[in-house]
Amino acid sequence: MYKLLLAWRYLRTRYIALASIVSVTLGVGTLIVVNSVMAGFAREMHIRLHGILADIVLESHSMDGFADPLWHQNEIRQIVGDDLVGMTAAVHVPAMININVRGEWITRQVSLIGVDEQTYASVSDFREYLLHPENRKQLSFNLREGDGYAKTEHQLPPSGWGYRRLKARYEKEFEEQQRQLRAAQGLPQADDGLPPDPFQAAQSAAGDAATADPAAAGSAAGPPQDPFAAAAAANPSAAEQKFDPEKDQFTGIVLGIAIGSVRQRNSQGEVQDYFLCRPGDDVRVTFPSAGTPPKAVSDLFTVVDFYESKMSEYDSSFAFVPLRRLQEMRGMIDPLTGVDSVTTIQLRLREGANLNAIRDRLRQRFPPEEYPYRIQTWKDMQGPLLAAVQMETTLLNILLFLIIAVAGFGILATFFMIVVEKTKDIGVLKALGAPSGGVMSIFLSYGFSLGLVGSGVGMIGGLLFVANINSIAAGIEVLTGHEVFDPTVYYFQKIPTIVEPMTVIGVMIGATLIAVLASVLPALRAARLHPVEALRYE
Amino acid sequence: MSNNTLPAGATTASSSSVALLTSSKMASTSTPPRGITRLDEAIAPGRTSSNPQSTGRNPQSGPMVLSARRLKKSYRKGRLEVPVLRGVDFDVRQGEFVAIVGQSGSGKSTLLHLLGTLDNPDAGEIHFEGNRIDNLPTRSRDVLRNKHFGMIFQFYHLLPELSMLENVLTPMMISHGVWHYLRNRRQLKARAAELLEMVGLSHRLTHKPRELSGGEMQRTAIARALMPQPKLLLADEPTGNLDQKTGAEILTILRRLNQEHGLTIVMVTHDLKIAAQADRTVRLSEGLVEKG
I need a surface site. Which of A112, A196, A280, B239 has the fewest CB within 10 A? Predict the structure, then answer.
């Protein structure tokens, strides 16, 4: 009883000891904040990564892909069974996108993905990252009417059909003025002058043969038209007459938002997006054809929407086009049999399905010795990134626990001081018959309660900090003028946090344990004091 | 040997609360009695608190409480061995009030520490109620000090973090476990309060030691020493740090405890006037008991 009473009284009267555990408090608070932010960050990353990646991806090694995805899909369906929720085939190909910005051609290097409008959304959260609210319900590669584009968090400049018509009309007027100007000056009406409309001049025969009716191309069933025949039939001059930018669009393309925009700070230091193109504009996409040697295939596409996963890596490199159109353009459809090829098959599995087991079963069916595929789960594909975050968290935890250990030595020193100060009292207690163990446990329970107070205050502080982390970040921004959490880097509007109760408890136990360990030596010293010498101590 | 020279009103102790001490001792094997009126009744057999002579106390022939034989103790100062006690024989009988006197360095404090099992003799034996105690294991000696020896010191040695009441309760907190203490805390607190009242400090229960005078602190220390109903009170210069009047008050309390309750007291002092108040004086000189 006297142990607890004395430990309690020491706790309340020895402020120097409370000062010595401030570092425990700070360490615990920091640990909780760091762990919460890292956990929030990791979860956000998991969601983002998983959002765009299917659970299991079957990927061909070559850009030419593998033939007959339908047969593969049937095989996979038999192997996976009930766990299968969604499946789609897609074509991934590196590509180059040229965007015309006020007469300048800006080039971006992208990964062009041919996707099936109907099934692609079933394997990933792809649809949720599109900006247009209608596209979130059902992806379409057709440019939308109305002001749906404006109803996004980015407040796009006027986009869609309205913008496209205005732009086309203005360009026509400009062209007409130029023609009249030339006529008045007596210049020849030749095409070798400055092309008034870069789009029309650059337009390719292959482009508008199909884009005149993109819906038909997208949903074309059975053996497609021979692309060569179509190209031959399309007379360039006839095509020019047929294509009217006011009414027609090229094949739709969905760009990652960082391809079509630049994120910068304005003179006030606010983060702003400058759009290089917007839905309704046309861009030129160039990519290699299938076969050896690959030839560059180039065509115009009309931007129909942006895609924002908030993973800058994805947002700056992914562009989506209709699968069928891409297959046609790359020559991935056998002209005789009509059998197509794809480069990847993506699976989404039931929640809680054992990804690794299914991956291994698929690998058994398609052994790498016989099939040129790579079969991976999304975690395999993003393994290094996830491991890096995990590693970072572990390192920070070790470093911060070292800080608390340093605090432990502070407690040790303070406790030695207190034991010296209390030498007489220890002697009295022993004279009154307190056993050495009892004297020792006074200081152990003192250390324990100090650790508990220190880590408790740290926990409360840490949790409060986590709860208000965004306001605190804003406050620090105001004070220092530096952005704490730079949205140009992270694409998060807020700092994500998750408080895991087990982590908090673990941190508290660890910190309290360190405080108790630090009090063991002084407590032993107190226990070993000789009562006569302690009483005589001046 | 007469103690009538002491100022009669020097202590504020009331006769009823003094009675408490005796009765509690008697009732220590059964449930401790509570309430002063009941205690007065419990005194009945053979004793009246107002008449110490009627207790039949005979210090010169009572049973032996503590006896030491050929005690030797020396301290080391570097490589030099300094003998402090060089074969001391010392006996205390039941109900005696013995004063140990001697000059500084004569070994009187060391003797008291050895008698109180705070320290170990280099040679010799100490018997308490016929049992040898100097070679007991540490834990048993802790219990012995806690239950049977009361100690008071020159510098009071109260715990500064605890109130007067808590200081008096400390021996009970040490001997009782947490739950046992909490179950009995009302009885224990009542008894501690009564002891403090007996030494005239009923108005100081919740004060901290630093708020009290030296005399008040020493009286609290006496109450603390009496708390576990000891068989022997060891006092190390109890008046050494007090002025004459306060010292006399403390001595009065000790005398009363000795006379009215038969408490055996061994007191160390360097002051011969104070030693004269005791039944018997043992003079130490250079580590030996002086004859005569």
Answer: A196
